Amino acid sequence: MRMIDANLKDAQVVKHKERGHLIEREKRVIWGTEEAIFEIIQQEGRGETIKTSYVESRNGNYRKDNKRLARRSACQSKEVDLHDAQIDLLTGIYNFVDENRAFRQCIKPNAKRFEVKYKKSSPAMLEGFTDHCLTLEELLMWRGPE
C-alpha cells in the first residue's frame, strides 16, 4: 500500500517544443505551494527556480541501473505490476541500502589508510527511518508502517 506524505512538495516542469526547439517552460505545482517549494530549493542551495536537472539525474541513474527502463531494450517493462515492483525495489535500495556520499559524516579526520574515516549515511537515515544503512536482506524483510 502506498501512502502519500502530508508534507510532500512536488512540482512539474513541462517543456513546450516546436520542431525540436524549446519555446517555453511551464512550471506547475502538484503538491504544496510554490513558496514552500522555492524555500526548499533555496535552503538546499540548488538554485533559485524549479528545474528538471536533479530529477533527470535520478532518472538517468534509474535507467542505468534498471534495464526495464532502458530505451529500446529486450528487457523493457511490459507489465505494469512488475514494472512498479521493480521501481519500488530500486527506490528502496537507493534510499535505505546505498550509501549517499553527500550525507556521510567524518568521524575520524586523521584516519590512516584502511581505517574508517566516515560514518556511512543514507537518505532514510537522515529522515530518521533507520539508524544504519540496511543490508538488502534487511530491506526485503523490513515492514513499513501499517
Order of helices and strands: EEHHHEEHH
Largest sheet: 2 strands, antiparallel
What value does the Rg take, in angstroms?
19 Å
Total helices: the number is: 5
Shape: globular
Explain this structure.
Helices cover 35% and strands 16% of the residues. The protein is of the alpha+beta class. It has two domains: 1-50, no CATH class; 77-146, no CATH class. A hairpin with a 2-residue loop joins strand 1 (10-18) and strand 2 (21-31). The protein is globular, with a radius of gyration of 19 Å. The mean pLDDT is 81.
Question: Nutshell version of this structure?
Answer:
With 146 residues, this protein is α+β, with helices and mostly antiparallel strands.
SSE blueprint and pairings:
Elements: E1 10-18, E2 21-31, H1 34-43, H2 53-65, H3 80-97, E3 105-106, E4 118-119, H4 123-126, H5 136-141
Antiparallel strand pairs: 1-2, 3-4
